[in-house]
Design brief:
heterodimer, A: alpha/beta, 8 helices, 22% strand, B: MetI-like fold
Chain lengths: 267, 259
């Protein structure tokens, strides 16, 4: 009877050509439903970060449109929805302690409410850093700095979380731990996540759906649903199903690489 | 290690002063050519009335010039980063200030500006200004691109971007500028006093050096020189301390590393 909820993200044949003429992305169309965990997987140069930045409104599509809950990207907050972005680096203010770093998005919005303060505490607790609120970023490890960055993203209570290779610079053990914690957050907060990575294993472990992309020219080649139940624990990482999905994604990437390159690389 | 930081330079200083005294005694050098270190200190104490007030006057010029250079330099830097047009139009003239020798334009300024103190402050400010402009401009531009995107994505206002992002990012460069500028302000003050000479106010350390030269009072010349050097070192140490105070908790340059 009621009309279905609008997709959290709707990309309508959006493409990107940079002003220097570089063709970053062929037209992409993609729908992401609320509550999905979608990973953009591909080699460097496939336009996955470009696509994510267009969804964030950091870049404008050369052609095509991007809607968030049926509204243009720049009107999303007026619509009662919040988008948060987590960068490849933690991008913390080195001169500020952890707490003001997490508070930053509230400060930039002029939110000085008690509720804001409570959410800062809550976010820090969620990422397990409540004991480090008064530390300076340089006193924290790379993994902990990323946690601060995630806490900063959570403090605005986003419903859409965009993450651009957030754990790419971390060692595998730390990365696995953060991936697990991220899934827990995702389930607990009922977030919609769009996650960029070049790790097949990270994509399989995290996603409800993987969008496989290829480079030169940047394009989407396939979508693979990971039909495995959550919560996913560490046993899942070494299960036969996991390997099956990993192989499927690997084949897809290899096929695209074999197909794409030679003719286009000249240009 | 902690003690070595000041102990080693101190040993060098003692050795040099000893060598100085040794040479003066051994070669029987006359005090009007090269006074011994003890005579310089004696003169400093004996002439303290004269030299102390000269030091005060020179430091006064230095202080006002330094404060003006810091305020003006920061303002100009802010203007530069707010608009590329302003920077393109005016940066060449900032360079002009830097490359024009102050001794060449000081006589003009001293003629134009009636008040001798003001004219000296202007000269010293011109010398001290450029490092503040260039360092602060560079600092205000040296913003982590990721953080800049983050501010942009959160629709941070121009003002918030300036106060929460640009100014803190500029701090290490600003303090580097302070260190250079404070020394230059002193040099500028002394040079301007030299140019003003007897026609100027006649109360700064440079004037005492000139007078001592005319009167062949070489020990007093050395005493005045010593005061200028010590003033320069004190300024440098002071700026270092300020920089440490402001940056030690976060910036690489001032963070103490375990060894």
């Amino acid at each position: 009877m009621s009309s279905p909820a609008p997709p959290a993200v709707e990309i309508l044949s959006a493409d990107k050509t940079y002003s220097n003429g570089t063709r970053a992305l062929e037209p992409v169309s993609l729908k992401i439903q609320p509550g999905e965990f979608v990973t953009l997987l591909g080699p460097s140069g496939c336009g996955k970060s470009t696509l994510l930045k267009m969804v964030a409104g950091l870049l404008t599509p050369t052609d095509g449109r991007i809607l968030l809950w049926n509204k243009p990207v720049d009107q999303v907050e007026a619509n009662g929805h919040r988008v948060a972005f987590v960068f490849q680096e933690a991008t913390l203010m080195p001169w500020s302690r952890v707490r003001p770093n997490v508070r930053l998005p509230l400060d930039l919005r002029g939110d000085t409410s008690d509720d804001g303060n409570r959410r800062v505490d809550e976010s820090l607790a969620l990422v397990g850093l409540d004991k480090f609120a008064n530390a300076y970023p340089r006193e924290l490890s790379g993994g902990m700095q990323m946690r601060v960055s995630i806490a900063r993203a959570l403090v605005t209570q986003p419903d859409l979380l965009l993450m651009d290779e957030p754990f790419g610079a971390l060692d595998e053990i730390t990365r696995n731990k953060l991936d697990s914690d991220l899934l827990e957050l995702w389930a607990q907060k009922k977030l919609t996540v769009v996650f960029v990575t070049h790790s097949i294993y990270e994509a399989v472990y995290l996603s409800t759906r993987v969008v496989v992309m290829a480079a030169r020219p940047g394009r989407v080649i396939e979508e693979v649903a990971i039909d495995e139940p959550y919560p996913r624990d560490n046993d899942f990482r070494v299960s036969p199903q996991f390997s099956m999905y990993a192989k499927r994604l690997q084949d897809s990437l290899l096929r695209a690489a074999a197909m794409g390159a030679p003719s286009n690389e000249v240009a | 290690m902690k003690h070595q930081k000041w102990l080693l330079p101190l040993i060098v200083a003692i050795l040099l002063v000893a060598l100085w005294k040794g040479l003066v005694v051994a070669l029987d050098i006359k005090p009007f050519l090269l006074p011994g270190p003890d005579l310089v200190v004696q003169t400093l104490i004996k002439d303290w009335g004269l030299l102390g007030s000269a030091l005060f006057n020179t430091m006064k010029i230095t202080f006002f010039a330094f404060v003006t250079a810091v305020a003006l330099g920061s303002l100009i830097a802010f203007a530069f980063v707010q608009s590329k047009w302003i920077e393109t139009a005016f940066f060449p003239y900032a360079v002009l200030l830097q490359v024009t020798p102050i001794v060449a334009i000081a006589p003009l300024i001293i003629i134009w500006v009636k008040n001798p103190t003001v004219s000296l402050v202007i000269c010293a400010t011109i010398v001290a200004l450029f490092p503040m402009i260039s360092n602060t401009t560079l600092g205000l531009r040296s913003v982590n691109p990721g953080l800049a995107s983050y501010f942009k994505m959160n629709h941070a206002s121009r003002w918030k971007t300036l106060t929460r992002l640009r100014i803190p990012s500029a701090a290490p460069y600003f303090f580097g500028g302070l260190r250079i500028s404070s020394g230059l302000a002193l040099i500028g003050a002394v040079v301007a006093e030299f140019v003003a000479g007897t026609g100027g106010t006649g109360v700064g350390l440079a004037y005492q050096i000139l007078q001592s030269g005319y009167q062949l009072n070489i020990p007093r010349m050395f005493a005045a020189l010593l005061l200028i050097t010590v003033a320069g070192i004190v300024l440098f140490v002071l700026m270092n301390w300020l920089s440490k105070l402001a940056l030690s908790h976060w910036h690489e340059s001032e963070v103490k590393h375990e060894e």
